[in-house]
Amino acid sequence: MRNVAIVGGGITRFGVREVGWKDLVQEAGKAVFDDVSNLDRKDIDSLFVGAAQPERWVYQTHVAPLVAELLGVDVRRVIARTEVACASGQAAIRYAWLSIATGLSDVALVLGVEKMNTKHMNISQTCMVNVGNREFDGVNGFTAPPFFAMVAQRHMHDYGTTKEQMAIVRVKNAKYGVMNPYAQFQKEVTVEKVMGSRMISPPLSLLDCSAMTDGAAALILASEDIARKLTDTPVWIVGGVQVVEHSHTVNQMGDLSEWKALRKAADELYKMTGIEAKDIDIAEVHDCFTISEIIEYEELGFCKKGEGGKFIEEGESYIGGKVAVNPGGGLLANGHPLGATGIRQAWEILMQFRGEVPEGRYVSGARIAIAHNLSGMAQLHHLMAYSVEKPQNLKG
Amino acid sequence: MKKIKLPDLIELPPLLDPWDQQEASGADATGIYEFYRNLAEGDLTTTKCRDCGKIGFPPAIICTNCLSDNLEWVRIPEVGELYAFSEMRLGAPMILDQIAPFIVAIARFGDYPENGVQMSGMIFDSGYDELKIGDRVKWEIIEIKGPAERKRYWYCFKKV
CB of B154 within 8 A of CB of B39? Predict the structure, then answer.
């Protein structure tokens, strides 16, 4: 396997955007090419587009060649659109990494995009209900909020987690989001404000939930020799895994308050990379709901099982705590355009490692970061590890 | 200027009806036709493997445990336990927004996971504050009245 690095990134403002899907693609594409200004676009040989449901939200399919056209890119090795619902973006990074690592591709453009706000929000919710088994679970109203509300209910029941602890996750991520000009939400919140916000699906209030968001993000990935020519500050991909354990329909999920597939993914990633949980400086995790981030602390090994609520309450996931979790504001502050989120996470890590974020959300001296996406009803967990060091150096 | 005239009202594509995957019209429409036929006759059933004994849900044409296609139809025990629940208050998908708010629940029937099933279901007859984890619930067959040509059936949960 060849070493693969992220050499540059670009992002659009996330939010309810008064622009079209193709505008978002061009905004993010222009931003990434501006960031890697010494790259000749002719050197890009591959393109991976993360997009979850463009055929439902904007009635457009066959989107990868459309993105190529919109950005004036000619592909000669690999071109594909990746779809694994909420983790479609990280999947695009993963396949670009694999293609370059094997030597098939040398330079890849990776772009994730979703336009989720339409005139008819119940149609958008219909898209979300298709993420579970539509015939057997979607039909019973299994969109994300009621499902994650049940996850929260069980975690509160099984481990004593409180609604207040969940609210602190939002407080933290909102605090960092204010320092991220691309984030959808630009206001700090208090525990009282989160707990007092409108009940969506009890016990989850509006501010426990991430949003339906329009946005796009893009990266350039390159092989080691080319990366060295393009940048002095490459971010190396040091590993990546995905775990699903024949779990899609509710019957296969077992206990909702335990995400065994995530624990297994973390074990696999740590084994693959030589990284331990305590080595991680930055964790970009999938806080689609406040409860998700709490469970992720536990399953990623940052704290003991059941103590995720205490972990945030004691400030351990703030910058300066045991591990800086979502220093860019996470999904809660940025919003969650499905195909773009995984790429936004990698973009945040790139900006952190390059020191190009405001001081208040800068994780000084960070060397190792992980990014976690989950898709659907937490059935499938996706992890990537990034470092300023090459993988060989990390393993010692 | 030439005009193209579109109808004043465009019919809703049936694809957005969450029950449209019920191909209960005949055995040639889906391999789990019996599931829907049994629903119409008042029974909630699933497939059980005759070789390894595993009860599957949703029903399927092969056993996901041992890949055997030697399956039998079994009745899901009528009374189970409420495992988790919430309420769909805001943000329901199309069609389901017509009946919101409703309780969204997960219940366990039989000896889950060894010899039972964990299923999602809606609850209509109890409010959120009237339910608690561990409540005994039973499944009940309901009729879906609507735009389809044939009669369609589904199930919901009800507090015992």
Answer: yes
